[in-house]
Amino acid sequence: MNLGGKGRASIIATATSIAPDDLTQQLEQDKGWRTIKYPTVISWPIDWTEKGDKGLWGEYYRIFDGENADDKPHKESRAFYESHRAEMDDGAQLFQPNRYKPDEHASALQFFMD
Q1: Which has fewest Cβ within 10 Å: 15, 70, 92, 93?
Q2: Which of helix, strand or coil describes residue 93?
Q3: Which pLDDT belongs to residue 4?
Q4: What is the pLDDT, as a whole number, of residue 5?
Q5: Could you give the CA distance from residue 10 to residue 33 in angstroms, rounded to a whole number?
């Protein structure tokens, strides 16, 4: 990156890998960078891992995708999540459980699953 002149520079890059060979992947493979990864989702919800699109999360996504297709706000999918939240959240563990906007999502899990 040539940011440190002739000496060394300390740089912290917080990023999420989006695609193969994106910048985060390149930095991870570069021996000049020390990489520490923290997964957003430490453990996935049981409903999602055991039932996938046949469970509550699958129904949530059908509602969510319909709202996207019709360019509607996500009111119905959020209401569905809120009414089934205990079961949909069961087993999930997040690295940053407070990282979401309450006016847009009911929880960080809903935000990350979206």
Answers
A1: 70
A2: strand
A3: 59
A4: 63
A5: 10
pTM over 0.90: no
Q: What is the mean pLDDT of each run of 10 residues along the chain (114 residues)?
A: 64 79 88 84 95 97 97 96 98 94 96 93
**Which class for 60: exposed (0-12), middle (13-18), buried (19 or more C-beta within 10 A)?**
buried
2 forms bridges with which residues in the sheet?
none
Both tokens of 10, joined, read 């300390």
CB atoms within 10 A of CB 51: 14
* pLDDT (0 to 100) of residue 33: 83
pLDDT value of residue 106? 97
d(CA 106, CA 76): 12
Alpha carbons 98 and 114: distance in angstroms, whole number: 15
Cα–Cα distance, 49 to 32 (Å, whole number): 37
Which pair of structure tokens corresponds to residue 103? 């006016």
Compute the distance between CA of residue 76 and CA of residue 70 in angstroms, rounded to an integer.
12
